[in-house]
TrEMBL record, chain A:
TM regions (residue ranges): 27-49, 97-113, 125-144, 150-169, 181-214, 220-240, 252-273, 279-297, 309-335, 370-390, 397-415, 478-501
Pathway field: Protein modification; protein glycosylation
Domain Oligosaccharyl transferase STT3 N-terminal residue range list: 27-428
Job of this protein: Catalytic subunit of the oligosaccharyl transferase (OST) complex that catalyzes the initial transfer of a defined glycan (Glc(3)Man(9)GlcNAc(2) in eukaryotes) from the lipid carrier dolichol-pyrophosphate to an asparagine residue within an Asn-X-Ser/Thr consensus motif in nascent polypeptide chains, the first step in protein N-glycosylation. N-glycosylation occurs cotranslationally and the complex associates with the Sec61 complex at the channel-forming translocon complex that mediates protein translocation across the endoplasmic reticulum (ER).
Molecular function, one GO term: dolichyl-diphosphooligosaccharide-protein glycotransferase activity
Basic residues composition-biased segments: 738-756
Localization: Endoplasmic reticulum membrane
One Pfam family hit: STT3
Name by which UniProt lists this protein: Dolichyl-diphosphooligosaccharide--protein glycosyltransferase subunit STT3
Catalytic activity, EC: 2.4.99.18
Requisite cofactors: Mn(2+); Mg(2+)
From TrEMBL, chain B:
Pfam family membership, one: OST48_MD
Family under the similarity heading: Belongs to the DDOST 48 kDa subunit family.
Main subcellular location: endoplasmic reticulum
Protein name, per record: Dolichyl-diphosphooligosaccharide--protein glycosyltransferase subunit WBP1
Biological process annotations from GO: protein N-linked glycosylation via asparagine
Length: 756, 490
């Protein structure tokens, strides 16, 4: 057919006619989706090409270690895993305190590939899992967008946006083996299934939604976002008077099955019925039963009686429910909102009450350029897309609106929640962009401005949507007549899209592809120089220390030490025990005489500090030091005081003017021990803080330097044993230095007699 | 035949043990002049390799001497070196008083301290008549043992002196042999009246005296590593014989604060003993007749026995506790009770045992805890969760096994089985065995149907399931309403 027509059609018309053919359309869509997925995967491989196939950052190291344990020991061992190499000496019930979804996914892929006789290293699976799932996320975004609009270009655009948006890439480059790697796919896909279930009122789709919700719960703590958003959507729908049996079926199916599924995860356990975060879902579940019951009653009794029944019944039940909730919370049966949740409402809350949360950089409020940095042009297409949703305003569009509202708020409060905003931005922006393109890329100019004409060009029926749109939002149909304006807008849009792609690639390549385990710098001649101090030091630990040597470091490095050096640590990035972290903070911020008994009690063999002064590496421990002080102060306000670490003028200094407490703190001593000897006299300099240091390096008595990496980024100290002849370390060290005591130092006061 | 061979082997092993202390038998004696050793020939002879000892004369070894291989050096000697290629050249050092102010480059305080840190033992004999070398003063200060100022002092007692030899100067003290410092301590320096060192508690029968001539006293700091072996009587004091003044205004120490023979045991169980009077080890004062103030009859001194006890303790011949083995295992039916597993579960029943021997002159004997004392096991993580008495269970010829069984507390983590038994005069026992204690695995909890509290819930589930099935059945099998009716309704 195409050939026959081709004879008398211009090539453009041929293409258009090809695009109209449903079969070729499907084929084209598949090809486009595959290309998008390929682009999504490809753009995430910068780090592998530039560095190597390596696990990035901090948390991924734990996930990697857990995956290795799972693959080596099997699922049940993993499920019951008691990890005695972290949180020494408390240990961690790791199997019961993690989200196993990620590891199990990798484990299944690993065993599947082994079964297919493809020998793949588990590390490569872990490294490449996030890019692989980003392809799936793009597809899920396509499906979700297709539920919103009839224009298929919107779905494809959404998939493309989702594939390359930096906001999502930031957490899913190759090597970023974190829960988010699979969780964003699950998030988008669960939302898609929810919309599907809601639209069809189908138990099957509802059950599928619950299934993927269960998978999501197994994968990421951010599942609470779904747990709150779906009931919110249902609640908004009911308030808009859109209660329907479809909603009832979809919601109850999802809630009942989804809650059961989530309770199978040991870490979640009974939280869905015991914490405030999960109460909205439970409340809406009950609310929907009530509404459904009322609907039934309304159909059964006369309207006047129904009125009184409604007021009394509804008011009474709502009051009772609220009272019950308050009572149970006060009685301790339902846990109140957790600190992390409070900090979502009040950004200053964490800083005052829970420094450990505030100390994490990704929990800081977002700076506004970050929105543009992560989303580029999508950020201005996004409101337009939301506006389009208002125009149609069906049940699913309400969802996008609710999601957009809450996603924006949370993304503004916490940097890392940009991730949950990104999908809805992609969807909304794609709706807007496709509307724009659909309008301006119309080949034919509209002859007559008529509603019918417009509808017929759209192809599918729009009647149902027409009826349900708000009257105020119903738009007059506008056609574009001149080729010039079409070409101008289409051209501008193309340029924007190209710039978007260019921006995404640039951001991905420059900002998000650094493994942070390996640092890259440029030599004067422009060639790349790799700074590999972390791995160097961890390798030293692995090869030169006893297998059960306990390493004390600030918690940021716990996972890396566990993963790369394979040594037990005191605290790590799973910050489950604030007191234990505060203990380490106290040891780091106290004098040696105070710190030594703490280290001794915790059987510490080595202390690891990160020092960037030589290289100008700003993410070092001295810059994090105030957080250690604050966290320690939270537990021991009498012994550690933040004020003492500042100069009398309130400055945080490390040079000769530093306060005495600062100079005597273990962290300061370990960081600057012997540092001045690197420089000619009087020129010792800290390049991070731009401070000139005193020539006299701090003296360490109870620790001895064991290792310092090439660029001094990692410094490892060995904790000395108790002195063999019972002296304190200061006396022993002074004897070692050759200060012999000639006479016993006369103490004032009466002679102390020895009593047996 | 085989039994004979094994007997011979056993005898060989026994004799090899017999001729050495538990810490080796290389002894270095440092004297001002090697010729001086004749003055101490009895004492050194007691220590030396027995004359009769020959490798094939297995059974007559250790009849007279205690089997030390003695080398003699002077402080000035070039060949004197306590270390060779970083290893100790000697196991024990015996230092007699020297006249020089310093001890030369081979015996600096650092070397002596390093020798202690390398588990070498030092017996230091000082004298009231020669000043103590300054390097010894400073090394003793590191141990918190203080000597009189100006490195010299003489202990006198106007009530307990020997009337035959020191009726004028009162500087030969006659002291009863020391009893235990505290009733719950093991003591090695009580002598039976015959003069043989006697570890058993026989405080009541102490009758002999020890002569302490021309000695210097020390005071000890508060540290737990120090303990006095022989304390001065309450009427004694120390003064500097070089000072001419009649009255002593700044007294160094007096009474029982003045320690005449002091013991120091480092954390690695290396021992240092300071004997205030070198003369008490000399031939002159071994078995001399002395007469106490106010007594008619003269008696023999027990210095020989006392010297044996002090040197024996210092050189690790007595008071050395050996941990033969430590074992812990699960004590539950139906579960493996393999030795020393790395991991336990909370609430497991566990048995811990430790086997201890004590070295006594030439052989290991079973270690017994003094009557008022306890050997304890600590089960600890950060702080002890249990502190349990270890009871003797099995006693063999050369060891006692102490053990205790208990239920692990309901706390998972990385725990230590810790035996921390440190007592004066006994070498330190510090045995730490780390185990992980895990939580209940998912299949180790009792099943829901054996918990009576769960029955209402199980019944609830049953009712719901049956009810739903029944509802479905009724729904499916009830006849649908006629079509006409339903249309009317709508």
């Amino acid at each position: 057919m195409a050939v026959a027509e081709g004879a008398r059609l211009t090539p453009v018309e041929l293409l258009v006619s090809l695009g109209r053919n449903p079969t070729t359309k499907t084929l084209l869509k598949i090809i486009i989706l595959v290309l998008i997925a390929t682009a999504a995967v490809a753009s995430r491989l910068f780090s592998v090409i530039r560095f190597e196939s390596i696990i990035h950052e901090f948390d991924p190291w734990f996930n990697f270690r857990a995956t290795k344990y799972l693959v080596a020991n099997g699922f049940y061992q993993f499920w019951d895993w008691f990890d005695d190499r972290t949180w020494h000496p408390l240990g961690r019930v790791t199997g019961g305190t993690l989200y196993p979804g990620l590891m199990v996914t990798s484990g299944v892929i690993y065993h599947l590939l082994r079964f297919l006789t493809v020998p793949v290293d588990i590390r490569n699976i872990c490294v490449l899992l996030a890019p692989a799932f980003s392809g799936l996320t793009a597809y899920a975004a396509y499906l979700l967008t297709n539920e919103m609009t009839t224009s298929s270009s919107a779905g494809l655009l959404a998939a493309a946006f989702m594939g390359i948006t930096p906001g999502y890439i930031s957490r899913s480059v190759a090597g970023s083996y974190d829960n988010e790697a699979i969780a964003i796919f699950l998030l988008v896909f669960t939302f898609y299934l929810w919309i599907k279930a809601l639209k069809l009122g189908s138990v099957l789709w509802g059950a599928l939604c619950a299934l993927f919700y269960g998978y999501m719960v197994a994968s990421w703590g951010g599942y609470a976002f779904i747990t709150c958003l779906v009931p919110l959507h249902a609640f908004v729908l009911v308030c808009m008077g859109r209660f329907s049996l479809r909603l009832y079926v979809a919601y109850t199916t999802w809630y009942a099955l989804g809650t059961l599924a989530s309770m199978q995860i040991p870490f979640v356990g009974f939280l869905p019925v015991r914490t405030s975060e999960h109460m909205p879902a439970l409340g809406i579940f009950g609310f929907l039963q009530l509404v459904a019951f009322l609907e039934y009653v309304r159909s059964a009794v006369p309207s006047r009686q129904f009125q009184t029944f409604l007021y009394i019944g509804l008011g009474g039940i709502f009051g009772a429910g609220l009272l019950g909730l308050v009572g149970l919370t006060a009685g301790g049966y339902i846990a109140p909102w957790s600190g992390r949740f409070y900090s979502l409402w009040d950004t200053g809350y964490a800083k005052i009450h829970i420094p450990i949360i505030a100390s994490v950089s990704e929990h800081q409020p977002t700076a506004w350029p970050a929105f543009f940095f992560d989303l580029n042009m999508l950020i201005w297409l996004f409101p337009a897309g939301v506006y389009m949703c208002f125009q149609k305003l069906e049940d699913e569009h309400v969802f996008i609106i609710v999601y957009a509202l809450f996603g924006s708020y949370f993304a503004g409060v916490m940097v890392r929640l940009m991730l949950t905003l990104t999908p809805v931005v992609c969807v909304a922006a794609a709706i807007a962009a496709s509307q724009l393109l659909d309008t301006y890329l119309q080949y034919k100019s509209p002859e007559v401005v008529d509603n019918k004409e417009e509808e017929s060009t759209d192809g599918t029926s729009k009647k149902s949507s027409k009826q349900s749109t708000l009257r105020s939002a119903s738009q007059p149909v506008v056609g574009i007549y001149t080729v010039l304006s079409k070409a101008f807008i289409a051209g501008a849009m193309t340029v924007f899209l190209l710039i978007f792609v260019q921006h995404c690639t640039w951001v991905t390549s420059n900002a998000y592809s650094s493994p942070s385990v390996v640092l890259a710098s440029r030599m004067p001649d422009g060639s790349q120089h790799i700074i590999d101090d972390y791995r160097e030091a961890y390798q030293w630990l692995r090869q030169n220390t006893k297998e059960d040597a306990k390493i004390m470091s600030w918690w940021d490095y716990g996972y890396q030490i566990g993963g790369m050096a394979d040594r037990p640590t005191l605290v790590d990035n799973n910050t489950w025990n604030n007191t234990h972290i505060a203990t380490v903070g106290k040891a780091m911020s106290s004098r040696e005489e105070v710190a030594y008994p703490i280290m001794r009690q915790h059987e510490v063999d080595y202390v690891l500090v990160v020092f960037g002064g030589l290289l100008g590496y700003s993410g070092d421990d001295i810059n994090k030091f105030l957080w250690m002080v604050r966290i320690a102060e939270g537990i021991w306000p009498d012994e550690v005081k933040e004020r003492d670490f500042f100069t009398p003028r309130g400055e945080y200094k490390v040079d000769a003017d530093a306060s005495e407490t600062m100079k005597n703190s273990l962290m300061y001593k370990m960081s600057y021990h012997n540092y001045a000897s690197l420089f000619p006299p009087g020129q010792a300099q800290d390049r991070v803080r731009g401070a000139r240091l005193p020539d006299q390096s701090p003296v360490l008595n109870s620790l001895e330097e064991a290792y310092t990496s090439e660029n001094w980024i990692i410094r490892i100290y060995k904790v000395k044993d108790l002195d063999n002849v019972g002296r304190d370390h200061a006396a022993a060290a002074s004897f070692e230095r050759g200060h012999k005591k000639k006479k016993a130092i006369k103490k004032r006061g009466p002679r102390v007699l020895r009593v047996e | 035949m085989r039994s004979l061979v094994s007997f011979l082997l056993l005898a060989l092993v026994a004799s090899v043990q017999a001729i050495s202390s538990s810490g080796g038998n290389r002894l270095l004696v440092i004297l001002e002049d090697v010729a001086e050793k004749d003055g101490y020939s009895k004492f050194l002879g007691d220590l030396e390799v027995p004359y009769l000892y020959k490798p094939h004369h297995l059974l007559i070894a250790s009849t007279t001497g205690r089997g030390f291989d003695i080398a003699y050096e002077t402080p000035k000697s070039e060949s004197l070196s306590l270390f060779h290629l970083g290893e100790r050249s000697y196991d024990h050092v015996l230092l007699f008083p020297t006249k020089a102010k310093g001890l030369g480059p081979n015996l600096t305080p650092n070397v002596l301290l390093e020798f202690i840190n390398a588990e070498g033992n030092i017996l230091l004999a000082l004298s009231g008549s020669t000043p103590v070398p300054s390097s010894l003063v400073s090394v003793l200060l590191e141990f918190d043992i203080h000597l009189p100022t100006d490195r010299q002092g003489l202990v006198v007692d106007h009530f307990n002196y020997d009337t035959t030899s020191a009726s004028e100067k009162h500087d030969v003290l006659l002291l009863p042999t020391p009893g235990p410092l505290r009733p719950d301590y093991k003591h090695f320096f009580s002598l039976s009246s015959s003069g043989a060192p006697d570890g058993r508690e026989r405080a009541g029968e102490r009758s002999g005296v020890v002569a302490f001539p021309n000695g210097i006293g020390q005071t000890l700091g508060q540290g737990p590593l120090l303990s006095p072996i022989l304390r001065a009587p309450s009427t004694s004091y120390s003064y500097n014989p070089k000072e001419e003044s009649e009255a002593v205004d700044d007294l160094f120490a007096s009474g029982s604060q003045l320690s005449l023979v002091s013991a120091f045991q480092a954390r690695n169980s290396a021992r240092l003993t300071v004997v205030g009077s070198a003369d008490m080890l000399s031939n002159t004062w071994f078995d001399t007749d002395v007469k106490k103030v106010g007594e008619k009859t003269s008696i023999k001194t027990l210095n020989r026995g006392f010297a044996k006890a002090v040197s024996g303790w210092t050189f690790g011949e007595i008071g050395v506790v050996r941990v033969n083995w430590v074992e812990h295992h699960l004590n539950e039916e139906g579960l493996s009770n393999a030795s020393n597993p790395k991991i336990y579960r909370i609430k497991n029943d566990v048995t811990y045992s430790v086997s201890l021997s004590e070295y006594s002159w030439d052989k290991y004997i079973p270690f017994t805890v003094p009557a008022n004392d306890e050997l304890q096991l600590e089960y600890s993580m950060l702080s002890p969760f249990n502190r349990l008495k270890l009871n003797p269970t099995i006693s063999s010829e050369d060891s006692t096994t102490y053990s205790v069984s208990f239920k692990l507390p309901d706390q998972h983590g990385i725990f230590n089985f810790l035996v921390n038994y440190k007592r004066p005069f006994l070498s330190n026992v510090f045995e730490k065995n780390t185990v992980s204690v895990r939580h209940f695995a998912h299949d180790e909890w009792p099943r829901s149907f054996v918990i009576s509290g769960a029955w209402p819930w199980i019944a609830g589930i049953g009712v719901t399931v049956t009810g739903w099935l029944a509802f479905c059945a009724v729904w499916l099998y009830s006849a649908p309403p006629a079509k006409g009716e339903s249309k009317k309704k709508q």
